Structure formats: structure tokens, C-alpha cells
């Protein structure tokens, strides 16, 4: 449950950084560096989230599932 909370909170912070970049762009008319800093934070958080997701998958904390069954699952389903 903790990884899901971390993912959702990180996504919310990423959206907040994107929104603040938009607000800075509108208010400053491109005269300050606040927009670039906000978007840099967003990119950094996105990369961090991606790396943490990959680490979670490789360590087994996050178990991805596909839309197609594995051969073992398929054999189990056919036996019932």
C-alpha cells in the first residue's frame, strides 16, 4: 500500500509543479526564470518516479501484471 501512496503523491506533486509553471508563465510573461525552474522540478520528479518504479519492479516490491496470461496461468485456467 505504501508504494501506491508514494506514486500517487509524487504524481500530484508533478501536476502541481506543472500548474505552477503555467501560472508563472502567464503572470511573468516570460521575464523571469520561475517557469523554467518549475518545469525543471517537474522533469526531475518524473525521472525520480520512473527510477523508483523500475527499482520497485526489480526488487519485487511492485508486481506488474500484463493483459495476457502467462503459460502457467493459462494451463491453470484450462484445468478448471
Descriptive overview:
78% of the residues lie in helices and 0% in strands. It is mainly alpha-helical. Helix 1 (2-28) packs antiparallel against helix 2.
N-to-C SSE series? HHH
Count of β-strands: 0
**Structural class estimated from helices and strands:** mainly alpha
Q: What does the radius of gyration come to?
A: 20 Å
Strand content: under 5%
Q: Give the termini distance in whole angstroms.
A: 31 Å
Shape: elongated
Number of helices: 3
Largest sheet: none
Q: Average pLDDT, to the nearest integer?
A: 85
Low-confidence stretches: none
Task: State the share of residues found in helices, binned by percent.
Answer: over 70%
Task: Spell out the key features of this protein.
about 80 residues; elongated; 3 helices
Summary, kept brief:
With 80 residues, the chain is mainly alpha-helical.
Write the layout of secondary structure elements.
Elements: H1 2-28, H2 34-59, H3 71-79
Helix pairs in contact: 1-2
